[in-house]
Write a structure and sequence with these properties.
Na+/H+ antiporter like fold; mainly alpha
Length: 417
């Protein structure tokens, strides 16, 4: 009974939690537009705070991301709607001009995860083999296989790795914590990097003109059709977004079970995951709308609504992170940290070699590590119009995830003590 009391947050009512998160977001946006805080926000991106401040409240036990259903609501309802509203004005010609470097950096991120796992085990085992040992369902490499699934594909791939390699429930739970903390800490660095991307591009000697061209084309298009929205305009924008989300849920509820029943072997491509189909259908719906008159909804703020929903998702992601959890299982976090460092080294090395803009490095990494829920967040930190690039790469990661994670797991098994 005492443990339950300890784990119960101060605020358990999701309506109150949502209110707190919205106040946090409002305060950050208000101060970031104030000249008094100009110096502070020059070094600390506002998007990073939108993610980090809720994590502090979670770590202090004021709220609980684990016990709240707000992340589920945001990821299932607001995220797909956001993707629709962010993609309905997409500039396909501009995206095409971004070139092959986006795919190269994504694959470099995947390679960093695949080789990073076994290398992390080898490095840790050189001075503490017990930390990466274990036998049977408690073998650490089995648990790490689930992290590989998450960091290349997503939640569906993570669950698939647990079933394939048989990690115990206790080990799996610990690995989820490692996954969330390490991945979110890295996302924090990416969000910070987005704020100084020009400096990073200078170090890479990268030509980011194509990205800037896409941004300018979007901004010019927004200016040309911009008008003061009426209540009717806003109702139409929200109606279109949630209508496509409804269609996406309807389609996902039909397609995923049908594939599970008739072609279960396709689970290795994440095709039996409803969330996969939710993201794919919502994104496809937005892309289809970009060829219709619905594209003009951008003139009354479609992408602004999309960004609003995305920031709410950012706050709910932040409230799932407990920065004190590192102290509970420091050994496992050490493995995760070494693994992520290897991923980063490979990413930066390839980025430097091909002179890729930091945008591709950040989004390519997050499309692997974070998936569809956070890749567009990192992309939109550079500019809201670039969010679809993150989505498209993340969907690619779902298909690649299980194969790559399976290979990574076999390598980790081979080198485990």
């Amino acid at each position: 009974m005492e443990e339950v009391v300890e784990n119960t947050p101060m605020i358990t009512n999701d309506a109150v939690v949502l209110g707190l998160l919205m106040v946090i977001l409002a305060a950050i946006f208000y101060t970031s537009s104030s000249p008094k805080f100009k110096t502070f926000y020059k070094y600390v991106p506002s998007l990073l705070l939108c993610y980090f401040v809720p994590s502090i409240f979670n770590s202090l036990g004021v709220i609980s991301g684990e016990q709240s259903s707000l992340y589920f609501v945001a990821s299932r309802y607001l995220l797909p709607t956001s993707l629709v509203l962010l993609t309905l004005s997409i500039d396909f010609k501009g995206i095409k001009r971004l070139g092959p470097k986006a795919i190269i950096m994504f694959l470099a991120g995947t390679l960093g995860i695949v080789v990073g796992g076994p290398l992390a085990i080898m490095i840790i085992s050189s001075f503490n083999p017990d930390l990466v040992g274990g036998a049977g369902p408690e073998a650490v490499w089995r648990g790490l296989s689930t992290v590989a699934g998450s960091w290349i594909g997503g939640g569906a791939n993570q669950t698939a790795m647990k079933e394939v390699f048989g990690a115990s429930d206790g080990l799996f739970s610990a690995m989820i914590t490692v996954d969330v903390i390490v991945a979110n800490v890295w996302m924090a660095f990416l969000l910070y990097g987005a704020g100084i991307s020009d400096k990073v591009d200078t170090w890479f000697k990268a030509d980011s003109s194509a990205i800037k061209d896409v941004r300018k084309r979007i901004e010019d298009y927004q200016s040309s059709i911009s008008k003061i929205p009426t209540l009717t305009n806003m109702m139409v924008v929200v109606g279109v977004g949630f209508a496509i989300t409804a269609i996406a849920h309807f389609g996902a509820d039909l397609i995923a079970p049908a594939i599970q029943n008739n072609a279960p072997q396709l689970a290795k491509f994440s095709l039996t995951s409803p969330f996969f189909w939710l993201i794919v259908i919502a994104t496809t719906g937005g892309l289809i709308l970009s060829f219709t008159k619905a594209r003009e909804l951008e003139g009354v703020g479609a992408s602004k609504f999309g960004s609003l929903f995305l920031y709410v998702l950012v706050a709910t992601i932040g409230m799932k992170m407990d920065v004190t959890a590192i102290a509970k299982t420091p050994g496992l976090f050490l493995i995760g940290a070494v693994w992520m460092v290897i991923h980063v080294i490979i990413l930066l090395s390839v980025g430097k070699l091909i002179k890729a803009p930091f945008f591709f490095t950040a989004v390519g990494s997050q499309a692997n590590v974070g998936g569809a829920a956070s890749a567009p967040i990192v992309a939109s930190a550079f500019h809201p119009s670039l969010a679809p690039v993150g989505v498209l790469l993340a969907v690619f990661g779902y298909a690649l995830g299980t194969y790559a994670a399976y290979g990574c797991a076999l390598l980790m098994q081979a080198v485990a003590p």
